[in-house]
Amino acid sequence: MKLLAILVGWMLAGLALAQGNTLRLPFPYIFSGPLIEFGERVWNEGVLPAVEVLNKKGGIKGRPLEFYKVDVRFPETASWITEFRRLCENKDLPVMFGIGPTKSLVAIYEETRKCGIPVFNPSSTGAWSEKDYAGWIFRYQPTAEDGLPAVLREGKARNNLRRIAVTYSIDDEYAVYNFKVAQKILKDLGIEIATEQTFRSKETNLASQVSAIRAAKPDGLMLLHQPGDMGTLLLQLRDRGVDARVYADANVAGADFWKLSKGQAKGAVGYSLYSADDKRPIVQEWVKLWREKTKRPNDGPDGFVTAYYDGVMVLAHVLNSAKSLSREDVRDAFVRVKDFETISGPITWTAPGEVTRSKPVLVEVGDQGVLKTWP
Question: In Å, how far are 23, 84, 90, 262 from 87, measured between CA atoms?
Fold first, then answer.
């Protein structure tokens, strides 16, 4: 009888998949504005391959998973808040997966509390003061509090880092928060801020900031911006002869950093949720799959594409282990995740908020922008 029950369960799961009883979830992300290319890359290179692999394994509770695009309209927030409210009115929606930038996540903090829906954001990298996370928000990227101390400590020990120029985007919450974290870490380590420079996202003429940094003659550069802005600034710094090493946060792992720096990002260090030279099979299988899908055998997936591939698998684990697809049961399933093996290593949540890993993954940008372990 037990064998028969198992066979019947398999047959029902297969029937559900064959009948197309699809679980359709929104994927709110950056599908317009200045970072649209970033959003499309995450969708095409991370989310869609993950869904394909997942559905071959049985999907969510025997149902195929499908995402549909919703635009968060970054960097604006008003229209995104309205859209989030609309989505939340659908009580059959068990979880909100995606969102993206810290600015877009902070914007829905109060709405998430009111709505009562789990929000799983794999790419928000900014330090954040609201440590209750509205009781429903789960983040996946390593944070500045976890990663920057190790990066700067190694910089001081290995490279004799003593004076650093710090730049950040004045109009981006993620960068402002991470700058505040960096200030304290630098003070604690006895590293002097040689100059502090700011600019707005997507500015292209950075001659003033570059001149100030060049005059300060720092030992290192800390660039706290979206990856594309980091690349734009670094290229102009290198063109003016500033060759100090770059120290950065998780955005060092963004492909646009390499692309817009025209390869000058090589040698920059920071932290990420993975390195492409990690020998674990789960990592190498992902790198191989990405190279096959993109037909770029010498390149490697960036940290954000990887976060969303990995995030889909984590989300599937949560939904499949939840008692039901009610919002409360899904939230409870998140906080029961313990030492679950992922591309970024074993992960644990004990409450809404930051995921826990055993140690930060320090990375260096190598040839073709491929992330390798540092030091």
Answer: 15, 5, 6, 40
Taking the CB of residue 212, how many other CB atoms lie within 10 A of it?
15
Closest-CA residue to 170 (of 258, 253, 103):
103
DSSP 264-313: TTTT-EEEES--TT--SHHHHHHHHHHHHHHT-TT----HHHHHHHHHHH
Over range 176-190, report the average pLDDT.
96
Q: How far apart are CA 120 and CA 118, in angstroms?
A: 6
* Residue 231 token pair: 């690349």
| pLDDT tens for each residue of 50-106 | 999 999 999 999 999 999 999 999 999 999 999 999 999 999 999 999 999 999 999
User: What token pair was written down for 40?
Assistant: 């499309």
Residue-level pLDDT at 20: 54
Stretch 172-187: mean pLDDT, rounded?
Answer: 95
Nearest 5°: the CA angle 24, 348, 101 is 55
- How many CB atoms lie under 10 A from the CB of residue 59? 22
- Amino acid residing at 138: F
pLDDT of residue 112: 97
